[in-house]
């Protein structure tokens, strides 16, 4: 056996160490577990359904799909992603605080952690083939959020309305660019149909719109072709998914930064204020529930009804864009989702404080501890069920039927995650991520 020198031993003692399980904050793991399971509600249609899948029943109130979709939009759409981002922001403080308290720099260690997360995200999108991956974005945007971790909470929280307005302006400019292309192309096509000869600029306008339309608004024939690709071999699916994932990670990255960054900063603020660590009184949490649902639910219900009336299909959407240069209703989105997300969190905290649903809370805590592994597990299960190289169930199920699988995955992860943690300290991906971050093999089996 090789004996280590005193200097080597001192270097090992001074090297940054990962947080041990006793340093975890249970309620944050529980909230992360809620976000992790909830995000599958919104993700699963994009694993399994063809484009425009809502059109046949988008205004049919007698259809079960309509009401399942309504519940998802009102209570979960945007809220679970917001919750996941907020908890990620709190995790930045948790990761760095203990190390910085003893005078050790966590900067390079944190950036290594984010670089590896970004690479995991690329693998998740381009190998497992989930074009809705968030790991890549969290890795990049986490590096930005880290720079603001020591800012006062009130300034961090101010970032939410500021970024919401920036996001609205950015999306409006994007829509106006598309609207301009569409109107120019439409005018040129009407002139062409009337038998007039088109100028070079008019022909270019038609070509530009056709390129945009193919990318964002495929026609019915293209939807059939895309569905056939998703029901094909691994290479067929990859050929369809990878370009979309790459565009999201590059061309449209600027539109993703603001939302996630603001929510991460909000998570840091709420952690510092004690909201996420149960330092508020029960009365304060109950007040948050009343305000969050009381203001958020009317806003989101109005938005849902408005969109249901005005955007039942692609044709109606194009007509709306033609007649309106700004979609003012979109201003509602960020405010209602944050109000309802805050109410969701406060409700979970109150239930936990009062000791309700103890077994469920234990399961959620374990799911949250294994969030990385469980998140990627969602993708593996869904791709193998729906994509052509798996069970080939893509575009075969009714929308409401997807949630039988969702509930099955929830039950599996709520049962298996606590059992796993009886024998292992971390999930397999969490363990691998720690090993790569710290540059050495970490303990894995629980003694």
Automatic annotation (TrEMBL):
Residue spans crossing the bilayer: 27-46, 66-94, 106-123, 129-148, 155-175, 252-273, 285-306, 326-352, 372-391, 403-425
Keywords, ordered alphabetically: Membrane, Transmembrane, Transmembrane helix
Occurrences of domain DUF418 (ranges): 270-439
Keyword Transmembrane helix set for record: yes
Coiled coil ranges: none
Record-linked PANTHER family: INNER MEMBRANE PROTEIN
Name of the featured protein: DUF418 domain-containing protein
């Amino acid at each position: 056996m090789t004996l280590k020198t005193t200097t080597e031993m001192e270097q090992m003692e001074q090297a940054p160490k990962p947080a041990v399980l006793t340093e975890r904050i249970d309620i944050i793991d529980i909230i992360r577990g809620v976000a992790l399971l909830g995000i599958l509600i919104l993700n699963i249609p994009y694993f399994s359904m063809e484009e425009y899948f809502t059109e046949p029943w988008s205004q049919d109130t007698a259809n079960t799909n309509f009401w399942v979709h309504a519940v998802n939009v009102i209570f979960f759409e945007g809220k679970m992603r917001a919750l996941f981002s907020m908890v990620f922001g709190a995790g930045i403080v948790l990761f760095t605080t203990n190390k910085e308290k003893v005078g050790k720099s966590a900067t390079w260690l944190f950036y290594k952690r984010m670089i590896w997360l970004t690479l995991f995200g690329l693998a998740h999108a381009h190998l497992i083939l989930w074009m809705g991956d968030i790991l890549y974005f969290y890795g990049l945007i986490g590096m930005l959020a880290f720079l603001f971790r020591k800012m006062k909470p009130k300034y961090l929280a101010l970032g939410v309305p500021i970024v919401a307005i920036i996001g609205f302006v950015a999306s409006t400019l994007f829509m106006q660019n598309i609207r301009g292309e569409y109107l120019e192309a439409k005018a040129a096509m009407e002139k062409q149909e009337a038998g007039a000869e088109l100028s070079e600029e008019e022909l270019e306008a038609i070509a530009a719109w056709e390129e945009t339309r193919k990318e964002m608004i495929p026609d019915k024939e293209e939807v059939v072709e895309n569905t056939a690709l998703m029901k094909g071999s691994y290479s067929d699916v990859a050929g369809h998914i990878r370009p979309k994932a790459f565009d999201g990670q590059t061309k449209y990255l600027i539109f993703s930064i603001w939302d996630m960054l603001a929510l991460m900063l909000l998570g840091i603020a709420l952690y510092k204020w004690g909201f996420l660590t149960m330092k508020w009184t029960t009365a304060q949490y109950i007040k948050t529930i009343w305000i969050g649902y009381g203001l958020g639910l009317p806003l989101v219900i109005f938005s849902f009804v408005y969109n249901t009336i005005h955007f039942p299909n692609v044709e109606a959407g194009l007509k709306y864009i033609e007649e309106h240069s700004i979609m003012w209703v979109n201003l509602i989105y960020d405010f209602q989702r944050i109000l309802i997300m805050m109410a969701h969190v406060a409700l979970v905290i109150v239930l936990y404080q009062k000791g309700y649903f103890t077994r469920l809370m234990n399961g959620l805590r374990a799911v949250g501890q294994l969030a990385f592994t469980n998140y990627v597990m969602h993708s593996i299960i869904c791709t193998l069920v729906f994509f052509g190289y798996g069970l080939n169930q893509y575009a075969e199920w009714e929308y409401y039927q997807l949630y039988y699988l969702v509930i099955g995955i929830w039950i599996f992860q709520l049962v298996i995650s606590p059992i796993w943690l009886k024998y292992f300290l971390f999930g397999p991906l969490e363990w691998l991520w720690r090993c790569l971050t710290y540059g050495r093999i970490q303990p894995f089996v629980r003694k």
